Amino acid sequence: MAALLAMADTTLATDQLDHIRTELRAEIELLNSRLNALIASQSFLVIAYGSSLGASFGEWRTLFTVTLPPLFSVLGFVLVIEAWPGLRAAHEAIRLWRRREAELVSSHSGYNPYTLATDEQSRRRLEQRQRAGSLFWTRVPVIFLTAWVLFFLMPFVLWMWG
């Protein structure tokens, strides 16, 4: 009877681990999709911005120079601001699912062979790598926002120097 209960407990824990990992994969895919959509939208806006600024090359004191490129800058800025909460939400969900996975694995020593972290030191290194990997999604919006502010100012600087 005790063996049957132990097997039922292991099956339940295995099902929980499978569920957690499925949810974790889904959240990572969601984060990647959101990040890819942001990068794709930004790349098209940078192309449009460059084309519109290049259309008035050498003639910086035109109304076109100070209207269309800044409009693309504002649009790019707004899109980053709109995408940022979704990126943060997906990352927070990933963090919570990873924590639940770590708790489940630490409560059942039989899972150690099925994880990348087999001891406490390797678990700390794994968490450190995961934090370092999450820096990309946190930095991308900041980089885009900074670029759009500079791109917004560029036509006005060219207008004054032109």
Automatic annotation (TrEMBL):
Give the keywords, sorted: Membrane, Transmembrane, Transmembrane helix
User: What are the TM regions of this chain, as residue ranges?
Assistant: 35-58, 70-90, 136-161
Q: According to the lineage, what is the superkingdom?
A: Bacteria
**Could you tell me what this protein is called?**
DUF106 domain-containing protein
The taxonomy runs: Bacteria, Pseudomonadati, Pseudomonadota, Alphaproteobacteria, Hyphomicrobiales
